[in-house]
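Dear colleagues,

As part of the handover before I leave the project, I'm documenting each prediction I ran so the next person doesn't have to rerun anything. This entry is a single chain, and its sequence is reproduced below.
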Amino acid sequence: MIAKCRYLLKAAVLVVSTAAVLFMAGCGKPPEIETPASGRGGYSVVDATKTRLDFEHKPQRIVSLGLSADEVLLDMVEPDRIAALTYLADDAGISPAADKAVWVKGRVQSGSLESVLAQKPDLVLVPNWTDLNFVELLRGAGVNVYVYKTPTTVKEIKQTICELSNVVDERVAGGKIVAGMEKELAFVRARVGNIAPEEHISVMALSYMGPFGVKGTTFADICNYAEVKNVVAEYDLPPDAAFSEETLIRLNPDLLVIPSWKYDNEQDPSKMREEILQNRAYQSVNAVKNKRVVQLRDTYLYSTTHYIVYAIRDLAEAAYPEKFN
C-alpha cells in the first residue's frame, strides 16, 4: 500500500512538473491580460503604445496589417476568424504561409482606411513601424487596434507570438507554435551546437541594397543559432552602409548567402550567383573560390515569426552539410 502511494505521488509530481515546463515554454498569462475570455466573459490587453483594449469575447473579424501577423494568425486561429490579410500574404517568394493564405478571402493595404473599414473588423493587428497617425484614424473610427513590436531576435519572436495569442485569446495554440520552434532549434543544436567558435564558418548575406545582417537584426540572431560567424555584424557596419566590392573582398566570407525573392522586375536573383562567381574581383574570396554561394529561402530568412527556425536550419545545413547527412 505504501509503495502504491509513493508511486501515485511520484506520478502526480511528474504530471505537475511536466505541466509547469509546458506552461513556461509556451504562452502563459502575462500581467497585462485580465479575465481571459475563453468563451466565459471579457478580457483586456495593453499594446506597444500602452493602449488598453477591452474585449467582451474572442475577436471574430481580425484584420492583419503586417506580414508577420499574417503568418502567426494563419497558424493560430481558424481562417473564418480572419477577415483580411496583407497583399504580401499571397507572395510565395516572401510569405512562408502563402499556401494557407488562400483560406482567407480579404486583403487590405496598410494606409488605406477604406479597405480596412470595409472588412468591418473587431480587431486590427498593426506592426509598430506603421504610421501612428493611421492607427489613430482607425481608433477614431471606433476600431480596436493592437500595435505590436516587430521582433528582431528569436527570443522576441517567441514573446510576440505569445503576445498575439493573448490578444486573440488562443494561448494554447500560441504555446504549441512556440513548442514547435523549440523542437526545431533543438534539432539544429544537436548537430552544430558542439562546433568550437574557432571552427565556425564565416558568412555574409547579400541583398540588392547593401550589407544584410548588421548587429541587432534577425539575420544576426539567425547566425548565432546556426553557429556561424556573421562577418557583417562582426565588423559593426551601419545599416545604411554603402556596399562595395572592396568590402566583400576585405571581409572574405567562407559562405555567401544571396537573395531568392524577386521583389521587382529589375533584379533577377537567378542570375546573381553566376555574376558573383564570374566576377574577376572576387576570385580571392573563399566563398567564390570554393563555389559556396547559396540561395536560401527568403520566405524563412526574412521572416520575423516562428518560420525563422527554418532559416536557422537552412543556414546551418549550408554551412555544415556534413552534420546533416
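Residues 2-25 form the longest helix (24 residues). The longest strand covers residues 82-86.

All the best with the project,
I.
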